[in-house]
TrEMBL record, chain A:
It comes from the Bacteria. One of its GO terms (molecular function) is ATP binding. InterPro entries: AAA+_ATPase (IPR003593), ABC_carbohydrate_import_ATPase (IPR050107), ABC_transporter-like_ATP-bd (IPR003439), ABC_transporter-like_CS (IPR017871), P-loop_NTPase (IPR027417). Keywords: ATP-binding, Cell membrane, Membrane, Nucleotide-binding, Repeat, Sugar transport, Translocase, Transport. Residues 9-245, 257-501 form the ABC transporter domain. This is Sugar ABC transporter ATP-binding protein. It comes from Pseudomonas typographi.
From TrEMBL, chain B:
Belongs to the binding-protein-dependent transport system permease family. AraH/RbsC subfamily. The lineage of its organism: Bacteria, Pseudomonadati, Pseudomonadota, Gammaproteobacteria, Pseudomonadales. It is a multi-pass membrane protein. The chain crosses the membrane at residues 25-47, 59-78, 84-102, 109-131, 170-192, 223-241, 278-299. It is found in: Cell inner membrane. Pfam families: BPD_transp_2. Keywords: Cell membrane, Membrane, Transmembrane, Transmembrane helix. InterPro entries: ABC_transp_permease. This is ABC transporter permease.
């Protein structure tokens, strides 16, 4: 029979996933033997969710899947792997102190009477390594000694052991250099020739053109296009990823944009943040957009002194004066505030009360000679609860019991009593329901009206276009463009977000 | 209607929190009562002046150490060196008195300074190199013990009754040492719940990165906790000297386990972020009653150690339940 008539290896029929909101809906997709299907889309479009469902990491909320003609509902990643459906996650899953061979065969070490058969382990490892072009390495090398590219190949090799029919690669080139990328591509082509069906997730459109036969574009959890790669142009794909324009903006009230309050010049840290410069004025909301891993969080941490910069200068005040920020403490003293992306891990004392959390860092106003003034602490908490409409039982309620949106308000509330002039928000509305999002936007507007300068990092482009006056786009560690309201469009912003990865490809 | 709910809402929440604290104290008091009743039934001699004076004598040493250890555990650390530091302080003091002819006051201050220095070393190394305090204090334990032997020539040094007044009962068998320990306890509880320093410690133990990003440098507070721990080990050394009238380089061997046990039995979390000096006080009473009671019923040393060890394990298991419940609500 002719190849095109062959039944698909994997077929998805109306697959959807809903957490508190739908993140994936009605996906119909077929995957064939010996093809590379590119899967692309913006941050949060549902790429990872879709692949996690296929690989058994999560069950779908609705819809059916078929694998080799049989209904497919893997109970776990392990079950999916046993059947030959595998996924290489973005984060490497290797044990650095163990050797390549041990990592490859961790779950099925060849043994005799409970003792590892080293010779057979080495032989098997050599075979597995040869499949991904690592034959020149010694299987006894500890994984920690390998470069990130080789580690990635080991991870892939591990997934090829045994029966592999479907292999999903999630942003495999995110950490690779040009040379390593080419080697990876050669192996992907080889696997395809062996008949493996590959799903290749990436936002580097040029990579997709080199590798894939078909390309699927996700937007807002919906599959908006599946087409032949040969017929797709880059411009068209960007358009598909972005969708319609949204020219609206939220009403932030009467405010005046004044003189510059923050100036960043040539800020650098390793590969993550490279030569970033910009300026933010009093009363202005400056958004920072970009793909995940573009260096946005790292930039904010540098500005806040949470990490040390290799080079560059931050100036604060009116007019901005250079300040040395070697620690968050100095940053706070100079009128900076950071509302971290990871509010549970870096922002809150989850097992403590709202009052204690709001008081954290406001001790100077709440104490005399080192002793806390409980009445003042309670009053402050009450004031913030009322002002920010935090839904809770009272200041003594434990923060861990609150919803995400209310937790975020507690973190923000901590800074509102201080004399901070510049506030850095990292993903302020992540994991927050829609109603609370608009509360937060209102709060941003209120701060801007008070003449503070706001920097807002968000992966939600529409959110930034809704609230910001200007948007800077980071791409691969660099600020690849700054757009104002009259000159931005989703296409242009997305294009800038991809810009930094293009040059890397040709390098 | 709206204003009523807003005005009333905080009250039940505050109520609930203080009820939980009260519940913990009542639970500990009940455990203590059960122990006392149990030993009274097992031994007719338990209700005697000698038993209670034994317990009352033990409490001040253990209590001041346990107060320090409560702070250390709250910031998520541990200090294993306290027993050795106690011996070091006593040894340094004995050398000052016997060899250099110092008076009791300067010699006492020297002992306290040595102990505080040892704690500062542990704290500074822990903080500067971000090493677990467990391992740093293990090293300091060995160094302090060695230094104690070095100073005393490995012999017990008799220093006379210069500090005996600390142990002499003033009224109803209550000694100045006991009063000092009580004062330390009360002050520590106030510091923990009412001072900025106490707030910082709880914050550091709960989420150090959050404290740092709130613009507070957590390092000085952390070092200070270990300094205070050392200082209190020095105070405990004075209490011991007041009874024994001799500096023994072997003093306080294994004491760290008793101290940690008392704190953990009191319910201070080994994971940091949660603890109370009042609960620790109950823990100290429970450990002391247990030790005295077991002696009274004629349990030999090995049996005592087995039972005490088991009690510690049970207390830690209970602690994990409490922690899980606290997180589970979140």
């Amino acid at each position: 029979m002719a190849a095109p008539l062959e039944s698909p290896v994997l077929a998805l029929d109306g697959v959807g996933k809903t957490y508190s909101q739908p993140v994936l809906a009605g996906v119909h997709l077929e995957l064939h033997r010996g093809e590379v299907l590119a899967l692309t889309g913006e941050n949060g479009a549902g790429k990872s969710t879709l692949s996690r469902i296929i690989a058994g990491l999560e069950p779908p909320s609705v819809g059916n899947m078929h694998f080799l003609g049989q209904p497919w509902a893997p109970a776990s990643r392990r079950a999916a792997e046993a059947a030959g459906v595998r996924m290489v996650l973005q984060e490497l899953n290797l044990l650095p102190t163990l050797s390549i061979a041990e990592n490859l065969f961790l779950e099925r070490l060849p043994q005799r009477l409970g003792w590892v058969n080293r010779r057979r382990l080495r032989e098997q490892a050599r075979d597995a390594m040869a499949r991904v072009g690592l034959e020149q390495l010694d299987p006894d090398t500890p994984v920690a000694h390998l470069g990130i590219g080789h580690q990635q190949m080991v991870e892939i090799a591990r997934n090829l052991i045994g029966d592999c029919r479907v292999l999903i690669l999630d942003e495999p080139t995110a950490m690779l250099t040009g040379h390593e990328v080419q080697r990876l591509f050669a192996q992907v082509q080889r696997l395809r020739a062996e008949g493996v069906a590959l799903v290749y997730i990436s936002h580097r459109l040029e990579e997709l053109a080199q590798l894939a036969q078909r390309v699927a574009v996700l937007r807002d959890g919906k599959l908006v296009s599946v087409q032949s790669m040969a017929l797709a142009s880059e411009a068209q794909l960007v358009k598909l990823m972005a969708g319609r324009e949204l020219g609206e903006r939220i009403d932030l009230g009467e405010r005046r944009i004044g003189a510059p309050l923050l100036r960043v010049e040539g800020l650098c840290r390793g590969q993550k943040v490279r030569d970033v410069s910009f300026e933010v004025r009093a009363g202005e909301l400056f958004g920072i957009s970009g793909l995940i891993g573009a260096g946005r969080t790292e930039l904010l941490r540098l500005m806040f002194g949470a990490d040390r910069a290799d080079a560059g200068r931050v100036s604060l005040g009116s007019p901005p004066q250079p300040v040395r920020l070697r620690s968050p403490r100095e940053a706070v003293r100079n009128g900076l505030a950071l509302i971290s992306e990871d509010r549970k891990g870096e922002g809150l004392l989850l097992t403590q009360s709202i009052a204690v959390n709001i008081a954290l860092g406001n001790f100077a106003e709440l104490s005399r000679a080192g002793w806390m003034n409980n009445a003042r602490e309670q009053a402050l908490a009450q004031r913030q609860i009322a002002a920010m409409r935090i839904r809770c039982a009272g200041p003594a309620q434990m923060v861990g019991e609150l919803s995400g949106g209310n937790q975020q308000k507690v973190v923000i509330g901590r800074w509102l009593e201080r004399q901070c002039q510049v506030l850095l928000f990292d993903e302020p509305t992540r994991g927050i329901d829609v109603g609370a999002k608009f509360d937060i936007y209102g709060l941003l507007g209120q701060l801007a009206r008070q003449g503070k300068a706001l920097v807002i990092v968000s992966s939600d482009l529409r959110e930034l276009m809704l609230v910001c006056d200007r948007i800077g786009v980071m791409s691969n560690g660099r600020l690849s463009g700054i757009f104002d309201r009259d000159h931005w469009s989703q296409d242009a912003l997305l294009d800038a977000a991809l810009a930094g990865y293009r040059t890397k490809e040709t390098a | 209607m709206k204003t009523t709910t807003a005005g009333q809402a905080p009250a039940p929440a505050r109520h609930r929190a203080s009820l939980a604290v009260l519940g913990t104290y009542l639970g500990l008091a009940a455990a203590l009562l059960i122990l006392i009743v149990l030993f009274s039934c097992l031994s007719s001699h338990f209700w005697s002046y000698s038993t209670f004076s034994t317990i009352a004598n033990q409490i001040p040493d253990l209590m001041v150490l346990a107060v320090g250890m409560t702070f250390v555990l709250i910031i998520g650390g541990i200090d294993l060196s306290v027993g050795s530091v106690l011996a070091l302080a006593a040894s340094a003091l004995s050398v000052a008195i016997l060899s250099w002819g110092w008076g009791p006051l300067p010699a006492g201050l020297l002992g306290l300074a040595c102990a505080a220095l040892a704690g500062t070393v542990t704290g500074s190394i822990t903080v500067a190199w971000r090493i677990p305090s467990f391992i740093v204090s293990l090293g300091v334990l060995e160094m302090a013990r060695g230094a104690a032997y070095q100073l005393t020539g490995s012999r017990t040094a008799y220093i006379g009754d210069a500090y005996a007044w600390l142990a002499d009962p003033l009224l109803w068998g209550i000694s100045p040492a006991f009063l000092i320990a009580l004062a330390v306890t009360v002050l520590a509880q106030l510091v923990l719940t009412r001072s900025v320093f106490g707030r910082q410690l709880i914050g550091i133990g709960t989420n150090e990165e959050a404290v740092r990003l709130a613009g507070i440098d957590p390092r000085p507070s952390k070092v200070l906790v270990f300094t205070v721990m050392g200082l209190l080990a020095g105070v405990a050394a004075l209490f011991q000297l007041s009874r024994l009238e001799a500096a023994d380089p072997n003093a306080g061997a294994g004491l760290e386990l008793q101290v940690i046990a008392a704190v953990v039995i009191g319910g201070t979390s080994l994971m940091g972020g949660r603890g109370s000096v009042v609960s620790t006080f109950f823990g100290v009473l429970i450990i002391s009653v247990l030790a005295a009671g077991l002696a009274q019923v004629g349990a030999n040393e090995p049996t005592k150690r087995i039972i005490t060890g088991a009690v510690i394990v049970i207390a830690v298991v209970l602690d994990t339940y409490r922690t899980r419940r606290a997180r589970g609500r979140g």
